[in-house]
Amino acid sequence: MAPYRTFLKRHVLWVGFIAAFLPLLALMALQYNSLVKLEAASAYAGEAYLKNFLEGVFDRVLYFYRGNAERVLSVPPSYLVQGNSHKIAWHFRKKEVEGASRLFVMDYTGAKDRLWYYDAASVSMLPSNRQAESRSVFVACAPFQLMSRKGTNLESPNLVVDEKDSDNYMILYPLTNDDFQVVGVAGMVVNMEYFRTRLLPEVIGETLDKYFKDDPDLKPVVKVIDPVDVTAYESDWLPDVAHGVSRYFPWIFSHYRLVVQSGYATPEQWARSNFIVNLSLSGLLAAVLLGGIALAFRAVSRELKLSEMKGDFVSNVSHELRTPLASIRVFGEFMRLGRVTDSEKCEEYGEYIETESRRLTQLLNNILDFSKIESGAKTYHMEPCDLRVVLAQVLKTMEVRNRHSGFNIHYERPDDDFPELRIDCEAMAQAFHNLLDNAVKYSGDSRDISVGLERSGGKVVFWVEDQGVGISRSEQKKIFDRFHRVPTGAVHNVKGSGLGLSIVHHVVAAHHGEIRVKSEPGRGSRFSIILPTTEVM
Ligand code: ADP
């Protein structure tokens, strides 16, 4: 169990990330799968929708002709008895039919077959005066004539369409007597003009409205093509017709084709574009989720790293405090017990105690400042200040310690007309001190340090240069982060809080200045603080 726990603890972030990422991946895969299925289904649905539209038009045309024909052609057979023709005429008059150019009755009851046409003006049945049309009627009725001759039983007479003559489409209804024998035929010649100019526009317009009411932009083009491939009817014209479906009319006008064409996309293309939109949305969602997860993990990992650094910080600071305190205590004891009689020694120990206390104060100042910076309570009091004085004081406080450890600090003084700046003297002194302290700490075996103040291009530059351990390029970016300490090499022998440079950075930024580092591992470092002179008094 224990190894697993250690593993989990160590890789908690990765484990967490994978635990969140895997279900997301599975979800994405499922989503993709269902989108692929949806794409296929959508394509069928799109095609089916157009086909349904066709059926809708067919139904209405069929209903119109059947309904009219059934109503008007059901002439009572008794009216065929000679002398009753006016009754037939009144029957037709009463029923008032639409869409027919002529109504007629073929009478097989007499010795000779007679064809009567309905004359609406005189409300009477008249013999035909149109030879071609009459011929067509005789031909169309021929099967019923045969039945009548043969005395065939026709128990359930039906409407029959005859389209042999392309100019005269007819709907016929056999009239039978009580013995179910054909005694005549009532019929109508269909009005082609009416079909073309009134029925089709009305039926197609209404069906389009019904089917595409919610999506008027998707309205298709509808055409009716006649048997010789001439367009008998066409709805709005669209420039680019992408695809379509077409079918022949059922029952009447069975040689006419109804074509529905969508100007937008094939159902497949439409489904594909839907698929792409859906997939992109899902992808976007997943990306946002992943981004969120990554951000959360980054925050957690930073927090973990920070808490690790804080741990190191506490141990480093304790060490930094313990050593000088122990020395101070020992020297203090010596003096209290009167063991130090020599005035020179006494001065030396006193100096030592003073230096170490200053260092401790400096360390505590850093910690206090850092806490103020973190809580946003750090304020700067800008006042006219001579940087030469500030630097001289800092060097003085470090002098004893440096003398003891054999450091040789070379100070390149500026010209006499060095300007006063409006700065926070104490904060700047702390920044100088931190840089100098680092130069000493990270000098390794070298004992040469140079510092300088100079004017350069309208700016003031303070610099510290050592010949010490140096800093690699990748670390140079990180050393100004709080708690960061270069983790490897000769540096790790030196104790420190990891706060010094982050405070320098903050102080310099508050003065609208810039801090630069130039360093090479093993060859030393040069830190420069560049301050603007706009603040010069
Ligand atoms: P510390 O208390 O550790 O010195 P700082 O913030 O002052 O904290 O410095 C951060 C890190 O930068 C140091 O731990 C050290 O690794 C590196 N560093 C700073 N100054 C120098 C220098 N002059 N030479 C080499 N490394 C340096």
From TrEMBL:
<keyword id="KW-0067">ATP-binding</keyword>
<dbReference type="InterPro" id="IPR036890">
    <property type="entry name" value="HATPase_C_sf"/>
</dbReference>
<keyword id="KW-0472">Membrane</keyword>
<keyword id="KW-0418">Kinase</keyword>
<keyword id="KW-0902">Two-component regulatory system</keyword>
<keyword id="KW-1133">Transmembrane helix</keyword>
<dbReference type="GO" id="GO:0045121">
    <property type="term" value="C:membrane raft"/>
</dbReference>
<dbReference type="InterPro" id="IPR050736">
    <property type="entry name" value="Sensor_HK_Regulatory"/>
</dbReference>
<dbReference type="Pfam" id="PF02518">
    <property type="entry name" value="HATPase_c"/>
</dbReference>
<feature type="transmembrane region" description="Helical">
    <location>
        <begin position="275"/>
        <end position="300"/>
    </location>
</feature>
<keyword id="KW-0812">Transmembrane</keyword>
<keyword id="KW-0547">Nucleotide-binding</keyword>
<dbReference type="InterPro" id="IPR003594">
    <property type="entry name" value="HATPase_dom"/>
</dbReference>
<dbReference type="GO" id="GO:0005524">
    <property type="term" value="F:ATP binding"/>
</dbReference>
<dbReference type="InterPro" id="IPR004358">
    <property type="entry name" value="Sig_transdc_His_kin-like_C"/>
</dbReference>
<keyword id="KW-1003">Cell membrane</keyword>
<feature type="domain" description="Histidine kinase">
    <location>
        <begin position="316"/>
        <end position="535"/>
    </location>
</feature>
<dbReference type="InterPro" id="IPR036097">
    <property type="entry name" value="HisK_dim/P_sf"/>
</dbReference>
<protein>
    <recommendedName>
        <fullName>histidine kinase</fullName>
        <ecNumber>2.7.13.3</ecNumber>
    </recommendedName>
</protein>
<dbReference type="GO" id="GO:0005886">
    <property type="term" value="C:plasma membrane"/>
</dbReference>
<keyword id="KW-0597">Phosphoprotein</keyword>
<dbReference type="GO" id="GO:0000155">
    <property type="term" value="F:phosphorelay sensor kinase activity"/>
</dbReference>
<dbReference type="InterPro" id="IPR003661">
    <property type="entry name" value="HisK_dim/P_dom"/>
</dbReference>
<dbReference type="Pfam" id="PF00512">
    <property type="entry name" value="HisKA"/>
</dbReference>
<dbReference type="InterPro" id="IPR005467">
    <property type="entry name" value="His_kinase_dom"/>
</dbReference>
<feature type="transmembrane region" description="Helical">
    <location>
        <begin position="12"/>
        <end position="32"/>
    </location>
</feature>
<keyword id="KW-0808">Transferase</keyword>
